[in-house]
């Protein structure tokens, strides 16, 4: 450090360097003047260096990426939340992936029909045994026969979506998402495709050589519409019969009778059959958000926010969002990511209060979410990490409560409280907040949101506010360093 005009230090008897820094004896006025000028100049240089170091330190702090981890049980909405981030901060890349998502949507659609075919088969089996099930009229059976090619399409799509090493097909028990009686559930299996997101499954679809300079998916540039093997062709050919089959009152009664709520089966596109089976169908942003593809492993997604929401400065800050697989076999992979996260968004799909886990038919989904939340809250590694709770699938929850399903039948502690939306949701919110308050090793603020992450508008509003909050906290923390 440069000195201020030497005199203060030179006069300090405790300074061991006083004799070095003291002004020379017998200094003339001109010499003194020259010395002081040099000292001032040196100080200016030194101050400049100090400022540069400080600016560099600030810039490093500002450049340190902000990390968010998405957690929650399988089908809680983690990947859908990630899609909202992508749509907000990297819409171009999001839209360029639509060719891949088109295949996923087709698979979701075909899978829904597979579920319905199984329901018909079940009714026929019961009738053969002399049990009183619904009689399926021959005309409906003829329609079913005509749309059977959908099952072959399912296999083709699965093969295309899971090029070697990129995914796996699991026999997932059908019952958990349908509300079938327990004994029935274990007998029926349906394939669910899981994708190891670190492998390039999307590349299988985004490489139409006819359009090497893909600009926009909106024009359908990315799809080889002339491909004779495009599954969209068969789906379109079956469209009329698919619509008839799904809307048939017997099918609807059958599904009701078997307690199968198709609207709750992930990737529900049956209410949009006209559009989704069209010959040149291109998924909308909302379709991509509703498409269901199970995650395996952990993926990191990077976004750059050009404005620091805390300070309003333009800085180009990196955000990293980590999406994980929520299936029980995947949860061991979460822990290494606990270190160094700025926030965790935990999704609890509260609409599943009357369902069990696909991987463990004895465990209620809501109580599984509560347990996971409790474990996170109490985890010492996370004691300084912001935990943000999304009580998700609020749209399905609302409809379910309205249709008369009773929370108290599944959550005994709910007792005699009224079974309306406000009371039920308030109870669940307080339950999660109470766990946070009691279980946190250090005091924490409760950030709880009611969400339907398939709704981009409300979700993006929540995410923007959250980012602001996280930025502020990061800013305060780093200022204290
Ligand atoms: N209606 C409705 N559907 C939702 C909501 N959130 C997610 N979904 C749908 O639920 C399905 C599962 O969501 P994902 O985001 O794939 O779930 P995940 O947590 O990533 O599941 P894993 O990858 O298995 O861990 C998808 O089809 C979503 O579109 C919601 O709030 N409302
Ligand atoms: Mg996922």
UniProtKB/TrEMBL annotation:
InterPro entries: Gprotein_alpha_su, GproteinA_insert, P-loop_NTPase
Pfam families to which the protein is assigned, alphabetical: G-alpha
A Gene Ontology biological process term: adenylate cyclase-modulating G protein-coupled receptor signaling pathway
Organism superkingdom: Eukaryota
Signal sequence region: none
Gene3D superfamilies: GI Alpha 1, domain 2-like (1.10.400.10), P-loop containing nucleotide triphosphate hydrolases (3.40.50.300)
Cellular component terms per the entry's GO annotation: cytoplasm; heterotrimeric G-protein complex
Annotated positions binding Mg(2+): 295
Keyword NADP: no
Full protein name: G-alpha-domain-containing protein
